[in-house]
Design goal:
By secondary structure, this protein is α/β, with parallel strands linked by helices. The protein is built from 15 helices and 13 strands. The chain has two domains: 134 residues, Aspartate Aminotransferase, domain 1, CATH 3.90.1150.10; 236 residues, Aspartate Aminotransferase, domain 2, CATH 3.40.640. Pfam families: Aminotran_1_2 (PF00155).
Length: 405
């Protein structure tokens, strides 16, 4: 029998950093889901109202998605067996890409293994060291990593500050190289909407490439969840649209939409696409079924927004800081409860869990120091009774722990 081996001296610096996290009160352990991803579910043996999931439209356990996954597994097997460019492109992968392209009203689409690789792989492949990237300061980590990998010169503009973005563009207007403006459609930590329309106008004015990451806008904003480009009515003015298949679409992966030439180029140069095995056919089938549901069950999005506005109003009335003073104001189903202090935030999140509400504490480095928050996410499938129960629990625990006076 072998015995487990502890941390060797070569990795002692990791232990020291973990100890530091524990002293700060921001160390955490993964909570384990024991049943379906649902509005009320079981984590670590405790039944809780779930306010932490990205399952915006409740599709994670929809019967039509289950049926599609099972049928595809029976027909095609459990795996594709190769990367897309060698032997792993199945007809069902092409059907998914065609489905998304038609949904987003663009020429073509390519699916990646995750939203993270879609962003990082695209930015790093379409630009080089002679080029410039203008990025919102609160853009997602995958955008930041892609920008670094591209070796392009990075200019960061203040959050949603279009005038600052233009100032930076003017500074480099006569520099050689391409310019890329990139923003989140919905910012994942604050839940505010990026100024995609105004930045698209700016990109047009200066001949820059316009790119948007719609991970949290897909299935949430726009007609039938078509995203921020549709929300603002700027079809044809955004060159690169990135989305995810793992949030409202309830499965796994990411995608990039745009011109046929853009997608053909990514087929040849995007390293995550070139060097990762393609999705199991069950995943592709699940995603196709989800896009069908976006068209056939628009009432899900209507319920999502009704629940969202009710929840925000009640939190605000109770006296919680949900953004708008020291942080951006949430405009979407993502609603942060801002506490500021990391330890206080993690303690509040733990107390909520013990009282029956799952709401994740988020602290540095995911958000800046002093901006720690408990992030809540509403879904279409939360009932009014569940929302009211969650609100009551949040308020009672907040008063008991000193979060509210």
């Amino acid at each position: 029998m072998t015995t487990s081996i502890g941390t060797r001296p070569q990795l002692a610096h990791l232990t020291a950093q973990i100890d530091d996290l524990k002293q700060r009160g921001t160390f955490f352990k993964l909570r384990v889901l024991e049943d379906e991803q649902a509005p009320v579910c079981t984590y670590d043996g405790r039944r809780v109202i779930n306010l932490a999931s990205n399952n915006y439209l409740g599709l994670c356990n929809h019967p039509k998605l289950r049926e599609a996954a099972i049928a595809a597994t029976v027909k095609y097997g459990v795996g594709s067996g190769a990367v897309r460019t060698i032997a792993g492109t199945m007809r069902i992968h092409m059907e998914l890409e065609e489905k998304i392209a038609a949904f987003k009203n663009v020429e073509a689409c390519v699916v990646f293994q995750s939203g993270f690789t879609a962003n990082a792989g695209t930015v790093s492949s379409i630009l080089g060291k002679e080029d410039f990237i203008l990025s919102d300061e609160l853009n997602h980590a995958s955008i930041i990593d892609g920008a670094r990998l591209s070796r392009a010169k990075i200019k960061v503009f203040r959050h949603k500050d279009v005038e600052h973005a233009e100032e930076l563009l003017k500074e480099i207007e006569n520099e050689p190289g391409r310019k890329l403006i990139i923003t989140d459609g919905v910012f994942s930590m604050d839940g505010d909407i990026g100024p995609v329309d105004k930045l698209a106008v700016l990109a047009e004015k200066y001949g820059a490439i316009m790119m948007v990451d719609d991970a949290h806008a897909s299935g949430v904003l726009g007609r039938n969840g078509r995203g921020s480009v549709d929300h603002f009515g700027v079809h044809g003015k955004v060159d690169v649209q990135v989305g995810t298949l793992s949030k409202a679409i309830a499965s796994l992966g990411g995608y990039v939409c745009g011109s046929r030439d853009l997608i053909d180029y990514l087929y040849h140069r995007a390293r995550p696409f070139l060097f990762s095995t393609s999705h199991p056919p069950s995943v592709a089938a699940t995603c196709i079924a989800a896009f069908d549901l976006l068209e056939s069950e628009p009432e899900r999005i209507e319920r999502l927004w009704a629940n969202t506005w009710y929840f925000k109003e009640q939190l605000t009335s109770a006296g919680f800081d949900v953004g708008g003073v020291t942080t951006p104001k949430s405009e979407t189903p993502i609603t942060p409860i801002i506490l500021g202090d990391g330890r206080k935030t993690m303690d509040f999140s733990k107390a909520l869990f013990e009282a029956g509400v799952m709401a994740t504490g988020i602290a540095f480095p995911t958000v800046p120091e002093g901006k720690a928050r408990v992030r809540t996410i509403m879904t279409s499938e939360h009932t009014r009774a569940e929302i009211d129960q969650a609100l009551e629990t949040i308020t009672v625990v907040a008063k008991r722990t000193g979060v509210l006076s």
